């Protein structure tokens, strides 16, 4: 089974990693001429949690299957989905499947191809028992966190934004409060006022007083 699973905390960058990997893979001649199938399972969102039945319905439609030909049961849908992917692969149209935010093996397993050719990238906050090659994503260390904050500010505001160099202690405090999570660091940078010469208000040293736990 050609499955790579990326596990890590929310906000650590799992989705960004697999999406960027898929984009790069598509640019490789002959790797995935059939394109990419992407589905967000919303495994950790009680209101938008996607069942494997519903996910398969959407994937089969994306593969060109008419609604009236899609069976009702999970097992039949999974069998049809896998046979369609295998048919694409046999015709030289190999597809890359991306399954994002799966919370359980039961939610993800029916979506995994079984033809030995179709590849899958999967993300989850947990290590799922799905016979996959596992890649654990860790949070950033303090130095890398400050550097990411600096780079995001430069990209968004330009080279005139020198707040990280001008106030390294504040930058370090923000990085610590973001717990090394790239998404949190990007949000903190995005919420920063536009310089010059605006600092980070209120002082990041005071943020800890309003941070729970």
Describe this structure in words.
This protein has about 210 residues and is of the alpha/beta class. The protein has helices spanning about 15-25, 50-60, 75-90, 105-110, 140-155, 165, 170-175, 180-190, and strands at about 5, 35-40, 95-100, 120-125, 135. β3 (about 95-100), α4 and β4 form a beta-alpha-beta unit. α2 (about 50-60) runs parallel beside α3 and α5 (about 140-155) crosses α7 (about 170-175). The chain starts with a strand and ends in a 22-residue tail after the last helix. The relative contact order is 0.17.
Mean pLDDT: 89
Shape: elongated
Strand content: 5-15%
Q: Any idea what the radius of gyration is?
A: 21 Å
| Helix/strand structural class | alpha/beta
Provide the low-confidence segments as ranges. 208-213
Strand order of the largest sheet: 2-3-4-1-5
> How can the largest sheet be summarized?
5 strands, parallel
Give the strand tally: 5
What is the number of helical segments per DSSP (H or I, 4+ residues)? 8
What string gives the helices and strands in order? EHEHHEHEEHHHH
Alpha carbon gap, first and last residue: 42 Å
